[in-house]
Amino acid sequence: MTTQTDIPTPRSPYVRRKTTRGNYELYSWVFMRASGVLLVVLVFGHLFVNLMVGDGVKAIDFAFVGGKWSSPFWQIWDLLMLWLAMIHGTNGVRTIINDYAQRDVTRGVLKSLLYLAFTITVVLGTLVIFTFDPCPPDAPAELLASFCTA
C-alpha cells in the first residue's frame, strides 16, 4: 500500500535520477538514425549495381563477385554495409531485449548470445571480403572472372 509520501505532488519539480549509463542510449538512438540513412544508400546502391546494371540477376555468379571484390572500392562498400547492418541490427535487438526480458539472468544470456552472433558474423564476413580469391588455382576456366589467367 502506498502512502502520501510515495507520490510526489503534481507541482513538485522533476528530480532526475542519477544513472551510470551516461548518454549511451542517446548516442545509440542517434546512431540508429544516421546508420539507417547510410544503410539505405548502401543497400540501394548494392541492389542497383547487382540487379540493374549489366545483365541483371542472371549475371551474378562467382566471376561477378570475383570481379567486383577485386576492386578496393567494392570491398570497402560491402564491408561498410556489413558492419553498419550488423551494428544497427544488434543495437535494435539489444533494445528489444532490454524492453522485454524481465529477469536479469535472461537479459544477460540473450545479450551474450546476441553479441556472440554479432562477433562471429562480423569477423567471418570481414575475413571473406578481404581474403576472397577471385582466381582460385584449380577452378574451371568458364567460372573465373575475365581478368584471371586459366
TrEMBL record:
Annotated organism of origin: Isoptericola sediminis
Pfam families per UniProt: Sdh_cyt
Gene3D superfamilies reported in the protein's UniProt record: Fumarate reductase/succinate dehydrogenase, transmembrane subunit
Keywords carried by this UniProt record: Heme, Iron, Membrane, Metal-binding, Transmembrane, Transmembrane helix
MF terms (GO), sorted A to Z: metal ion binding
Chain ranges passing through the membrane: 26-53, 73-93, 113-132
GO cellular component: membrane
Origin: domain of life: Bacteria
Cell location: Membrane
InterPro entries: SQR/QFR_C/D, SuccDH_FuR_B_TM-su
Name used for this protein in its record: Succinate dehydrogenase hydrophobic membrane anchor subunit
